[in-house]
Design brief:
By secondary structure, the protein is an alpha/beta fold. It is 36% helix and 25% strand. It has nine helices and ten strands. The longest helix is centred in the C-terminal third of the chain and has 18 residues, at 176-193. Keywords: ATP-binding, Nucleotide-binding, Transport.
Amino acid sequence: MKAKPIIAISNLYKSFGKNEVLKGINLTVNDGENLVILGRSGSGKSVTIKCLVGLVQADKGKIQIFDEEVTTLNNDDLNYIRMSIGFMFQNGALYDSMSVRQNLTFTLKHHTQNLAEEEIEIKIIEALESVGLAEAIDKMPAELSGGMKKRIALARAIIIKPKIILYDEPTSGLDTITSREISELILSVQKKYKTSSIIITHDMACAKMTGNRILILKEGQINAEGTYVELEKSKDEWVHSFFI
């Protein structure tokens, strides 16, 4: 018997004024899977994951996470589900006035109440070691390179031991070598923490390395689905344009 997906989105619609961004999205994410979503700017990639966690309210459709219909949940129940979801924002979204240690402490205390100081320290060091940046614990965001900020953002996502991680353009703005390092980290996190993930990206090297399965969005609808190898062989000119 096939296991139920961790995430299931059905017939999802979202408009902003007259701009129809999502036009009936259907997708699933299986347990332990990295699902990559590709698409041109404005195709609805980021809006999809924002609807998923309730940052944006969908106009129509169903969103199930862990078998819970999240579009009907009250705020407390939605927050409970969010506590199992790590989010790596495109720009890192670190608090500039806080050190790395303080950024991670803030996230940890927000998700887990009544932790002793020594427990917090252990969790912070473990998360930083997982991304290879234990030495940066007392640095300020302004002292970090773009790649280091991405790593710290990933540490902040995994420190709550999430079952799901949502990556929004995890390699954007990085050079080829650093992008590859971030992609390798995504795979390492998937293996170590047994996470299920959605990865929004324009970076085909990242998609190839991290994605167990890839969806391509076109004008708010899923245009193609498959593995990297399958989609690379597509006869569809538009799909093929991603691989040139």
